[in-house]
Design brief:
alpha+beta
Amino acid sequence: MSENNTSYVVMDARSGELFVPAPPFNMVGATVLDLPSDLWRDFVFFVEEARKHEHSGRSELRYRFLRAGLLSLFSHLNAMFDMMIKSLKSDADYSDFKSNESKRRANRPDWPRCEHGRFVLLYTDYLKAERCIDLPVIDWSIKPLRNLLAHPSGVRDVTVADLYDLDINSLMRATDSFKAWIMEACEHCNVEYEADTEGILKTLVQSLAGQKSQPERF
């Protein structure tokens, strides 16, 4: 992106990847992006907008921002779950627990169909069994509504009417349960809930200032 003829060096705060614009350019700026956290802030913004339009009686705009909010929320949640799953691949104890329990539970009617649902169940039970740690309980009631948005013609049990009538306070209560689980689980699997983008940017700028040449990507 260019603003006032400025090209930006972009760093992914989670992966550490650095993307340098190709010349020619007049000036170079730098920014650090933490997409999972940005998606959370998007969710908060969209819900605030939905509340405003609920109070003003503009139901269609309320509905629009609720849809955007739900999609942003689950993009954020999926990113956090994926980072935790990746971080635990080198944990031999958890890997053994996961393998054994997955085989034992695979044919149970309550075994989650989605990977993230299985992860939450297994990691919750692992911490309880191996470390006597109780993670908060997640309220999954809003997940079918996200599924409806992702697959509008292929979801059972919920309808567009359920989505349209979604109570914002109920949405926030369920959201708080997800956030509480993730924040505590992150502490036990070495994942930052939110990256220190300001600190990373400061280090990046100092590094770039000391370089005479920059690779296109590293």
